[in-house]
Sequence to fold (149 residues):
Amino acid sequence: MKVLLLEDVKKLGKAGEIVEVSDGYAKNYILPKKLGREATNQVMNNWKQQKASEANRKEMEKQQAIATVKDLETKVITMKEKAGQDGRLFGSVTAKDLAEALKQQYGVDVDRKKINLKDPIRAVGNYSVEIKLQAEAVGRLTVQILPQE
Fold:
């Protein structure tokens, strides 16, 4: 019996593959546990349509992430922090603070884990910080830290 696997099955195959299994194995294990479906024409067409729509959705998300990064590269995030006379901050600016500033200043919601800040910012000045929304959507943010008056 030909079966379209819906999930990975050890020693048999990965999700999306069509495998030939014995009728008993399919009827007693694969089908009841919903690990696969019998590979009929209708099931195969539905699976192809589902995969195509998923690929289309991922491509749209990728394009949107690239556009967002290009837009953010042209903007400057300005933050006012308490600082001493020598320019050192009382505390530090972290990726979480940068994500909140992005949302507050430009209305762009970015997860703090997507902002690659090696060390927290601890001094007044201008900084360039990497942002990676997806594998292809990588850019640099310009951050300006000013002393609070």
Remarks:
- The longest helix spans residues 41-73.
- Residues 48 and 69 are 32 Å apart (CA to CA).
- Helices lie at 23-30, 41-73, 95-106.
- The chain is about 35% helix and 30% strand.
